[in-house]
Design goal:
With 390 residues, the protein is of the alpha/beta class. It is 26% helix and 21% strand. The protein starts with a helix and ends with a strand. α1 runs parallel beside α10 (245-265) and α4 (66-75) crosses α5 (86-95). The longest helix is centred in the middle third of the chain and has 21 residues, at 245-265. Strands 1, 2, 3, 4, 5, 6, 9, 10 and 11 form a nine-stranded mixed sheet that branches. An eight-stranded antiparallel sheet has the order 15-14-19-12-13-18-16-17, with no helix packed on it. The chain folds into two domains: 2-181 and 217-285, TIM Barrel, CATH 3.20.20; 308-389, Translation factors (Elongation Factor Tu (Ef-tu), domain 3, Beta Barrel).
Length: 390
């Protein structure tokens, strides 16, 4: 719920999330039915839409629970259900006819005929395969009904399978990636072993790092919002249900501010491009949008780049800038800090005097989640973020 709230506070006009069943991120802290209702209400309070992911590829044993679940999503006012499986689509149209349907990227929609077919079957939006170029997308847009919305991923994790349809996890870990339980074996470190030399491992290349032959970089398209808009894309999708609340806030904020700036001024300020490097991420690339071949794999390791950390969250702030903060990582007086709010550019400052909630002067914040006071360089609303570079 915290992740959802931060995405909304920092500018999302729609959020996608899942219930305990049918979602492709089984370990994402998904919502029970009461929480789903609360989450939908929270989105609507913020004038945002709530899209519920039902995008697994189910077996018959799982389908018996689908009709009631779909009826419940319609009852609580969800704005759409995201579906991969054509059988689930059929059930949705039968049991929740008032619930709009979006077709998941897992369906691998690569051409206008597929998009039109899903539209004929009742879909209001298609989330295209991530393997398409901008020219491909523009062609699909030109050859589909304007009533059909087109959504594409613009930022987040990628994988080596077509639009996430992978079986590596099933084979190597017994965890079904198409039912939301992927173990991400594409990130593992591999060596070569010859059949008649068991236990002897051979490196694919020089060095002692093994081979990350399946390890994808992360997609980042923030610098190419103009091209995305020109291709006729209706909705930009940020992948991040397995990320932190900080990630949800920063990346949402960066894309929202970048898009707004481009639409208003015709360019994207560097300050918002810089923001995407201040979260935990792998090396970035632009996916398949520009037809680049062989640019998407990172062979060094599967580690994340983490150059910044969250130091505190703002709980409250007085008109003079005196704020109550909740600690996330230790801070010392004099540390170089950055303050991120939903409404302004990041502001750099050095941490000044601090005191605990009893009024005692402190030189650092050593206790996890401790509350303390300091004066900020501007009046910051609740859920503003203090961070520092590692």
């Amino acid at each position: 719920m915290e992740k959802l709230s931060m995405a909304l506070i920092y500018g999302a006009d729609a959020v996608y999330f899942a219930g305990k069943s049918f979602g492709m991120r089984a370990a994402a802290g998904n919502f029970d039915e009461d929480q789903l209702k609360t989450a939908v209400e929270l989105c609507h309070q913020k004038n945002a839409k709530a899209y519920i992911a039902c995008n697994i590829v189910p077996g018959d044993a799982e389908l018996s629970a689908a009709p009631r679940f779909l009826e419940y999503l319609q009852e609580i006012g969800a704005d759409s259900v995201i579906i991969t499986d054509i059988g689930l689509l059929r059930l949705a149209k039968r049991h929740a006819p008032g619930l709009p349907v979006h077709i998941s990227t897992q369906a691998g929609i690569m051409n206008s005929e597929s998009a039109n077919m899903w539209h004929d079957l009742g879909a209001s939006r298609v989330i295209l395969a991530r393997e398409l170029t901008l020219d491909d997308i523009a062609g699909i847009r030109a050859n589909t009904s304007r009533e059909l919305e087109i959504e594409t991923f613009v930022h987040g994790s990628m994988c080596v399978s077509i639009s996430g349809r992978c079986l590596l996890s099933n084979y190597l870990a017994g965890r079904d990636a198409n039912r939301g339980d992927c173990a991400q074996p594409c990130r593992w470190k591999y060596y070569l072993m010859e059949e008649k030399r068991p236990g002897e491992y051979f490196e694919f290349f020089e060095g002692d790092r093994g081979a990350h032959i399946l390890n994808s970089k992360d997609m980042c398209m923030i610098e190419h919002i103009p091209e995305l808009l020109a291709a006729g894309i209706s909705s930009f999708k940020i992948e991040g249900r397995m990320k932190s609340s900080y990630y949800a806030a920063v990346i949402t904020n960066a894309y929202k501010k970048a898009q707004d700036a481009y639409l208003k001024c015709g360019y994207i300020p560097q300050i918002w491009i810089d923001e995407v490097y201040k979260v935990s991420h792998r090396s970035y690339y632009t996916g398949f949008y520009f037809g680049d071949v062989g640019q998407g794999q990172y062979y060094e390791n599967s580690l994340y780049i983490r150059n910044w950390e969250v130091s505190a969250m703002v709980e409250s702030c007085e008109p003079d800038g005196t704020a109550v903060l909740s600690q996330r990582n230790k801070v010392f007086k004099g540390d170089a800090m950055e303050l991120l709010t939903p409404d302004s550019e990041p502001v750099r400052f050095n941490m000044g005097d601090m005191e605990d909630m009893e009024g005692n002067v402190i030189e650092s914040t050593p206790h996890p989640m401790m509350r303390y006071r300091t004066k900020l360089p501007l009046v910051a609303p609740p859920n503003s973020i203090l961070r520092k570079e590692n």
